[in-house]
Write a structure and sequence with these properties.
Blueprint: H1 2-23, H2 29-51, H3 58-84, H4 87-108, H5 115-131, H6 144-165, H7 174-193, H8 204-225, H9 230-237, H10 241-252, H11 258-279
Helix pairs in contact: 1-8, 1-9, 1-10, 2-3, 2-7, 2-8, 3-6, 3-7, 4-5, 4-6, 4-9, 4-10, 4-11, 5-11, 9-11
Length: 280
């Protein structure tokens, strides 16, 4: 069951990222992130009231707040990368980064996966080199700064996965509400500082949809990580670029070189290997 929730989470995350990334091509990335986060906050608040979960201890809220800080930084970096580069390049780089770091965290805490996990990590590094165009050729040029922002986005998402993984079932979705309060505050301040708030134009609906999907994916992630091991769940969730890339291929007619295609396949393979190792 945890794997099923994690896989569903990956699919929804991927669609949300496509919608958000698509919207950033027509409006400032900070504006799109703010709209999505406000939508997520409203959605989560309605659900927490409807469910009626008691307010949790400060520890749970604290982990949610940390996830909120990470969410603000991750979305700012990720959407910036998506608005300046190809989705088929940015999404896999961010995903591999967001998977490897939580696995490393689990290792430090005492997890000892099989050798196959380490093979997967090496494969992930090679995948990043191919997908980013550091090796091989690309149809679309990707600037080094865009790759850096994609990696920073992955670091932020990894932080979110780890923080939410530390919460308990007794807290319900209160940590997600806390996370959104913090992220809306930070992104709102960024939007005001850069004077980009309120310029969403015709892409507001897409940004709202991305926000609803993002929070839905977070619900699924909590269901998965509270029933399974972080090392297993996170690598399955990190498969989200599959749906992002498929949508980019089908709807935006994005192209990839052969080396990039091999890199994406290697990225998926790396995530699967780490997942198998975590299950063994």
């Amino acid at each position: 069951m945890p794997i099923a929730f994690a896989f569903a989470c990956a699919v929804v995350y991927g669609i949300a990222d496509y919608c958000g990334g698509r919207a950033t091509r027509s409006a400032p990335s900070t504006t799109i992130a703010l709209i999505g986060q406000i939508t997520s906050l409203v959605f989560a608040s309605i659900v927490v009231v409807a469910v009626g979960t008691d307010f949790p201890p400060f520890r749970e809220i604290g982990w949610g707040a940390l996830a909120g800080i990470a969410s603000a930084l991750a979305l700012a970096a990720f959407y910036h990368a998506m608005s300046h580069g190809s989705m088929t390049v940015v999404a896999p780089i961010t995903a591999v980064t967001s998977a490897v770091l939580p696995v490393g965290f689990a290792l430090i805490r005492g997890d000892r996966p099989a050798v196959i996990a380490y093979v997967g990590m090496v494969l992930a590094v090679a995948a990043i080199a191919l997908v980013s165009g550091a090796v091989g050729i690309r149809h679309l040029e990707t600037r080094r700064s865009t790759i850096v922002f994609a990696i920073l986005g992955g670091v932020g998402f990894a932080w979110i996965f780890i923080a939410l993984g530390e919460t308990t079932s007794a807290s319900g979705i209160w940590p997600l509400v806390a996370a959104r309060v913090v992220s809306v505050t930070i992104i709102g301040a960024m939007a005001i500082a850069t004077r980009t708030a309120g310029r969403g134009g015709g892409v507001w609906r897409l940004a709202v949809f991305a926000g609803l999907l993002d929070m839905s994916a977070n619900f699924l992630y909590l269901l998965a990580v509270r029933r399974g091991l972080l090392s297993i769940v996170v690598v399955v969730v990190a498969l989200y670029p599959v749906s992002t890339v498929v949508l980019a291929f089908r709807l935006d007619n994005e192209r990839v070189s052969r080396s990039q295609a091999v890199g994406m396949a290697m990225a998926v393979g790396a995530l699967v290997l780490v997942s198998i190792a975590g299950a063994s």
